Amino acid sequence: MFKSINRTFAVILLLSSSSVYADKYSNIGRAATEQEIAAWDIDVRPDFKGLPKGSGSVAKGQQVWEGRCASCHGTFGESNEVFTPIVGGTTKEDILTGRVAALVGNKQPQKTTLMKVSTLSTLWDYIHRAMPWTAPKSLSNDEVFAVTAYILNLAEIIPDDFILSDQNISDVQKLMPNRNGMTMNHGMWDVNGKPDIRSVACMKDCTVQTQVKSTLPELARNAHGNVQQQNRIFGAVRGVDTTRPPMTAPIGFLIKQEQETQNILSQANKDSSVKTDGLSLSRKNNCLFCHGVANKIVGPGFTEISARYKSDPGAEARLIEKVRKGGAGNWGETLMPAQAQVSNDDIKLLVNWILKEVK
Amino acid sequence: MTNEIRKTGRILPAPENFVDPKLAHEITTNGMDETRRGFLINSFLAASAGLASATAMAGSVKNNAFIGDPNILSLPEHSVTLGKPVVTNAYGMPSKYETNLLRRESPGLTRVSAASVSFAPLQGLFGIITPSGLHFERHHQGWQDIDPSKHRFMINGLVKHPKVYTMDDLMRLPSVSRMHFIECGANTAMEWGNVAVPTVQYSHGMLSCSEFTGVLLSVLLEDCGYDKQNGKYILAEGADGSGMTRTIAIDRALDDVIVAWGMNGEMLRPENGYPLRLVVPGVQGVSWVKWLRRIEVGDKPYGTKDEAIHYIDAMPDGSFRQYTSIQECKSVITSPSAGQMLLDKGFYNITGLAWSGRGKIKRVDVSVDGGRNWNVARLETPVLSKCLTRFNIDWVWDGSPATLQSRAIDDTGYVQPKINELREVRGTRSIYHNNAIQSWKVAASGELSNVQVY
Prior knowledge:
The structure holds two protein chains of two kinds. Chain A has helices at 2-18, 21-24, 34-40, 58-73, 92-97, 113-116, 120-130, 141-154, 169-173, 253-271, 278-284, 302-309, 315-325, 344-357, and strands spanning 30-31, 55-57, 163-165, 182-183, 214-215, 237-239. Chain A is mostly helical. By secondary structure, chain B is an alpha+beta fold. The two termini of chain B are 42 Å apart.
């Protein structure tokens, strides 16, 4: 009993002494320099902590915008071509209330950035760290102030002659149209948060409405490509051929169809006289493990064989025999094993291919 | 005996191209009769003219006596030839027959493929681990393949000792290996209002699960001496062009968050953040910052682009829920599922996935009658916290229309809701966090399709 208590004490002591961070993982990592932190610590928080000094006018912003931003976002930030629109859907009234009225009841089908964003810091931070799209982090701080000013001006949040700066940005924050539009009143931030929906797991004779509420629109059936080719070609199920309308006949016909096909195919395999070319034939029969087409591996290359025997009229028969029964001595001491598993037809084709076609 | 005969037919590839598509469809739709059988034979003969005489062919078809499967009776090539040597593929690839299950984009969902999504082919995956090459992708400004010898990781902010770590440093630290799911907050987003996509790949495929290896973030925060009094949040920041940033509450960060380099036994794939990413178990994928370069400890949330413009849940009263992060309990039947078809009546194994961002899966129920009656499915092991759980249940299909559903319950007692229950609270424009019960309708033809039933 005492022993175990002592042991517990010992463990506690050990833990507390080893949790002195500086010693615990010695010689791992190093102190970050001030310059390094300055180079990477670029985030700007909603209270504008992290915002560098600087300023930019709406007019300067328009210049930067037209050169660096408009091709994706449209001249007025309205474009829906490449990304969702930035500007639109906010009113003078929204600037007063801090709630974008068009969001209620989802009247506006497309929500623009300015309809959603509550914090001006977010715009500044994101433009600074990630824009322009193909050359992120290439705008100067003043250019970021200017572009931000231009966007705000497009939404009539600030006037045409405005100069946005680190000094007045928190005043402009008070004009953001959706500044009061966010809520943290939900249980999905904390792992122990309270869920907003409490469903019940009914097991028997549960109440369900009989009709199907929604089905896949006909136009969407093949919109993701042929689903048949997005499923395995064997197993418990097959992919549906979505290039065709749904089948109407009950189950069973497909199996019969496959069976018919199989019967025909197996017959066809028996009768087939279709031959593959020499290279695939030699690959299929594993000739290429020992013979290169043009080079010696274990045995001679096919071109070497061809060069030696192509004008020898008796060579064909001798080589066929050699492949079938194996041999050694013509190209070195390494044995060519008998190839009894290769069909006579294949051997004949291979030898002919080597003698007549390999160059 | 009839069953055995049928099975040999089923393991064959889909019918060859010699059948005219129109005829094939007619046969599929209306069945085989003598006329169509004749057409089928003739079309084959036309395709193989000169190979066999018409009478021989017809005779073989009519004579249906079953002697045996040709795949058994005549030894296949692979049984009578030498196979390929070792290291033919120094990094092994899937079989040449496995070309259909791929990551795929949803056309029209995004307009630039560098700021887009590819979905994992859940309809054909087994167990709970997603093959690394099929892990779903979500990039905000394209993906990069970063030289690990030049990658640096910094911790700064409210810490006594701001530090820089190399990959060499990080990989010397005590590591953990843990299996967790990652799901995009926008998974199943397209189904909030109505049915919109044809298969489970597009409805639920922004979901993957891997074994991740790395060092607990708590170890690193301790190593830097984070401010236990004032440190309330961390900011995680990526090294990619988008400089991806997300806020994580400090209690979450200290709990089970991993600064990870390993994924399924090897290094992370570039598309998944090579050489370093954050693993935030139970939380939506956007917080699992890839190409992780920096953690800042602070006393307030950061309101980044993906916390103030995107990844905010639109509510019916016009407000947005900000910092919605936890992926609540959810499940889906992956096979049979929409876009697949059953080949015959009889036995099937209904299989699917269940997961919860709040803990372990406690139970999964499956209904085949659209939610009227439910049966408890088998959970396959392991059943881990914040990890995918595979469920299976036996089903004998009698050939009549059916509607398949699964419903998961996690160890907090939370029951996966029906879509109408979600809509009552959150409306239909939320985009994010749709964890509703999914319904697949089975038609008498054996074809499954995506429907909403409640």
